[in-house]
Write a structure and sequence with these properties.
Elements (H helix, E strand, L loop, with lengths): L4 H11 L17 H16 L3 E4 L5 E4 L8 E6 L12 H16 L8 E6 L12 H6 L5 H6 L8 H7 L7 H4 L8 E7 L4 H5 L3 E7 L1 E10 L3 E2 L11 H19 L5 E10 L5 E2 L2 E10 L2 H22 L2 E10 L2 E2 L2 H15 L4 E4 L5 H4 L5 E6 L15 H21 L3
Parallel strand pairs: 3-4, 3-5, 5-15, 6-14
Antiparallel strand pairs: 1-2, 2-4, 6-13, 6-15, 7-11, 7-12, 8-10, 9-11
Helix pairs in contact: 1-3, 3-13, 9-10, 11-13
The structure holds (2S)-amino(hydroxy)ethanoic acid (HGY) and manganese (II) ion (2 copies).
Length: 413
């Protein structure tokens, strides 16, 4: 039995059209026209493959092989994208899942478990401040109240956007996934790092996923005239924010480990004018490591460093924790089946830690969960330069098929 890789590549090209910008990157955030178009297109693909498609309360899309009751093995990822993002992050996982399930269906392969494909809503950070929205909400990690309170800078309510794409936040309490409702979740995803690229290998299993910690920080300084205010009298919020970002870099760099990173990736400066000393800055700080105890120590060290900046510059940092997501260890049975799939296609199993967050983190709370990583050229991701070659995609499809068939035998029905 062979997966139809030609169809898979055609679908990758087709999905990449939704949200493509003039630079060749993809803009496909929750609620955008591109999000809506991608949803309609995915639904049509699944329906023509003979799957039953359903949109849940948070607008996750589910496509199930009809006719078999019971807890399904679920395969999938997400179809939204970061701003000016690439065509593989999320999309490749959804389409690999689609192809493998369709291949099994077309070949009339009898499976012990039902099979289902999922594409989660709003996995990426978005203007509403809730990433991995679909998987968190459906696994009871977010309340309807939290979602009902969320809005973007323009006042647009997240709940309205969810309704526009077919969800209904108020129905969430009745639709949350319960433990045992799914037999397993397998998420194929590009690696987004360069371990496989450097090793010249196509695919890997994942044994752990990093914790992610985020703070929204407001820097309160003092706006004043950029010509008449002497240098010692300034309380420049932008310069304090810059020093804060450097303090984060110094804190995480000191431990010198590939699984400890920190980033200030978003910042807004107010009032943002050439002749006004910045009076306020708003930024998002992120720290990632699978080592929780180390993260606590690093946060203490960072706090001491930025208190010194506050004192020196006469500014105030107002900190609010936006996300404190624990690291997870993935299910050994699922990870082993994926490793066997890797062994089958490249003669060698590889196990990696994911430093990117994924919907798999949240699905692991309700069912045995694993991930299949696929090589990213030069490890580049969250960029329009993101690239995974056809050969590695084809290996991934075969490895995933192998893993699903093995799990179908080993997991209890
Ligand atoms: O941010 C992440 O790690 C993921 O790609 N959303
Ligand atoms: Mn991403
Ligand atoms: Mn992703």
């Amino acid at each position: 039995m062979e997966v139809n890789t030609k169809r898979l590549h055609e679908r990758l090209d087709a999905l990449a059209r939704f949200g493509r910008n003039d630079n060749g990157g993809i803009d496909r955030s929750i609620g955008s026209q591109a999000d809506r178009d991608a949803r309609a297109w995915l639904t049509a693909q699944w329906q023509s493959a003979g799957l039953n498609v359903r949109t849940d309360a948070i607008a996750n899309l589910w496509a199930r092989v009809p006719g078999k009751p019971g807890a399904p093995i679920v395969l999938g990822s997400h179809h939204d994208a970061v701003p000016d993002g690439g065509r593989f992050d999320g999309a490749l996982g959804v389409l690999l899942a689609t192809e493998v399930v369709q291949t099994l269906l077309e070949n009339r392969v009898p499976t012990r478990h039902p099979l289902e494909v999922v594409s989660f809503t709003a996995e990426e950070p978005n203007p509403f401040g809730l990433s991995t929205l679909g998987s968190r909400a459906i696994t009871s990690k977010l309340t309807p109240e939290q979602i009902l309170a969320a809005h973007d800078d323009t006042g647009r309510r997240l709940a309205d956007v969810i309704a526009q794409v077919g969800g209904n936040v108020k129905a969430l309490p009745f639709e949350r996934l319960q433990p045992g409702e799914k037999a397993a979740y397998l998420e194929p995803h590009i690696e987004q790092s360069r371990n496989l690229y450097d090793a010249g290998l196509a695919v890997a299993t994942v044994d752990r996923i990093t914790g992610i910690y985020r703070e929204w920080i407001t820097v309160e300084g003092e706006a004043n005239h950029a010509g008449t205010t002497t240098m010692p009298r300034r309380h420049d919020a932008l310069l304090a924010a810059a020093e804060l970002a450097l303090a984060l870099e110094a804190t995480v760099s000191r431990v010198n480990r590939s699984d400890v990173v920190g980033t200030v990736g978003k910042m807004d400066v107010f009032p943002n004018a050439a002749n006004i000393i910045p009076g306020r800055a708003e930024l998002i700080l992120e720290m990632r490591t699978p080592d929780r105890e180390l993260r606590s120590r690093l946060l203490e060290e960072f706090t001491a460093r930025i208190e010194a900046i506050e004192a020196k510059r006469g500014v105030r940092f107002v900190r609010q924790v936006n996300l404190d997501q624990a690291e997870v260890v993935l299910n050994p049975t699922v990870a082993a089946a994926i490793a066997d799939g890797c062994q089958a296609v490249q003669g060698k199993p590889v196990s990696l830690v994911s430093m990117a967050g994924h919907d798999a983190v949240h699905m692991s709370g309700i069912c045995p969960t694993g991930m299949l990583f696929i090589q990213s050229v030069e490890g580049i991701s969250h960029s329009r330069q993101e690239l995974t070659h056809d050969a590695e995609i084809d290996s991934a499809a075969r490895a995933l098929l192998h893993a699903v068939l093995e799990l179908d035998q080993t997991l209890p029905v």
